From TrEMBL:
Boundaries of every PPM-type phosphatase domain copy: 249-467
Organism (species): Solirubrobacter phytolaccae
InterPro entries in alphabetical order: Bact_Sigma-Reg (IPR052016), GAF-like_dom_sf (IPR029016), KaiA/RbsU_helical_domain_sf (IPR017944), PPM-type-like_dom_sf (IPR036457), PPM-type_phosphatase-like_dom (IPR001932), PSer_Pase_RsbU_N (IPR014787)
Gene Ontology terms for molecular function: phosphatase activity
Descriptive protein name: SpoIIE family protein phosphatase
Amino acid sequence: MDGANGAPVLAARYSAAFTAYLADRGESALGAAYDLGREAVAAQLSVMDLAEAHHAALRAAKVHDDATLALAADFLRESLSTFETVHRGYLEVQEAARLEHEYVEQLRALADASVAINLSLTVEAILQLTADAAREILHSARATVAVLAPDPRLRPLTATSPPRLGGGDPQPARLQAQLTGRGKELGMVEVIDAPDRTFTLRDEAVLTQLAQLASVAISNAQLYDRERTIARTLQRSLRPGGLPPVHGLSAAVRFRPAGEGIELGGDFYDLFPAGDGAWTALIGDVQGKGPDAAAVTALARHTMRAAAAYESRPSGVLALLHRALREQTGDEGRFCTVCYAHLRTAPNRVTLDLACGGHALPLVVAPDGSVTPVGQLGTLLGSDIDPLLTDVSVELGPGEVLVFYTDGVTEVRRRRQEVFGHNELVALLKTCAGLPPDAVAERVEAAVMAASEGRLRDDMAILAFGPTPQPKETDG
């Protein structure tokens, strides 16, 4: 039989088998009903097709008495048993497919949650994402995540989904999973639902997986936060809090660490008294990043501050720094570039001696808009070769501004292309004619941040200074 022509064929065979059963009334004749039901299922006929065949057989046999009707009911029931078995199997397969689909969807949602959670850098964001994911994946009424505060004196951090909790049921169904990291208990994630909800082993496994990935993210975020705090503290300690006031000198500084400030950079600057009424202004850059670079930065600043008390020649101070770097950094080596100025102020004038050890030459911005590099290039400090250092005398007159800068200003790249370099810096400074040092430093910083789209790849330091304008004397 087939689906198109199977119904008439089934009706004819059903009538013949039914007539034979009424005559025989034995088990073998009744077995023919089961075979007919199985053939109907194989031919993709419906229960209605089988029922119509049965009614046609009843009419043909002219069955009216109760005893024969009971026999007819037995025959129909036997033929329908195959349909019942098939239907029950279909429902079981359908339920298994539903559960499998639900589990696949849970795993997909878990993968999406993993991506979002691992992209978050703060514990607070991770907790909220975890709570939202737990509620959504397990289709529960709400979820709560709590982690112990690093300081036991502080309250635990918590997040709930939805954020505002209602009254809920007095005894809801609950499922919990522990948050652990580096062998320590971090907290717990809990989902809550109606009292008649029964959480399955699969629900427990999914929540445990979510708790494990959240635990890793929370541990990493806590470690990142500690490192960021340490880095910021060290960076503050390696830079003066603010420039000291210097009579006759207007000075300004801008400093921005690269990235999130979690990795210690090597840019530094300073302005301090050098004795006998003179001052020292400097800017430098240490090779590399991290704790080693920070240690060299501290060594450089302290060495130059100590040497400036008895050595007025910039080249002499840098030579001492070179020897200190060679003695302290060992076989690995750690290099440093410095632009160092020993300066004195006078009314409307600043005179200075300048030496550059491997650092870019500073630029003088004149009132007429011209921009001129001053000094003489020297060699790197801390290398195996004794540095070539030259002192150059410079005088800044009224309206002139000297700009020190690090390579974070002139090596701004985006998609592997330089978008702000030395030429762009010079062009910008030409527009700063007549501006005070603070305005000049502000413009340079703004240009670099715009060119880098706010994402610096290297520290940026700018130190600008010039003579403080003196009021013009008027004839009495």
